Amino acid sequence: MWSREPPLNIGFGNVVSMDKVVAIINSGSLAVKRLKDDAKQKGKLIDATQGRKTRTIIITESNHIILSAIAVDTIVQRLKGREKDV
Tens digits of per-residue pLDDT, 45-68? Predict the structure, then answer.
């Protein structure tokens, strides 16, 4: 199950365990595109966009790359909102 922190909603009913997240980055650069292509080739790409445009890339401890259609700012606001509840 989930570890210490509750899961973070990354859009469309998809959640990720924040204990395993290394970075949350914008999907706009060419370097990020190469990172995404490499993860796809290695079978470590998880597409949680539901067919929409990728706006955020989430990198996990296991080097899995998770694609989200939710903007980085929105995800950060969700994290900040959770900090206020604690």
Answer: 999 999 999 999 999 999 999 999
What lies within 8 Å, CB to CB, of 24 at 6+ separation is 56, 57, 58, 59, 72, 75, 76
What phi and psi values does residue 21 have, to the nearest 5 degrees? -85, 130
Considering the entire predicted model, what is its pTM? Answer: 0.88
Fill in the DSSP letter of residue 47.
E
Gap between the Cα atoms of 33 and 40, Å rounded: 11
- Quick: pLDDT tens for 63-82: 999 999 999 999 999 888 87
The domain segmentation of the chain, as residue ranges, is 8-85
Q: 3-class SS at 40?
A: helix
- List the one residue out of 57, 56, 28 whose CA is nearest residue 44: 57
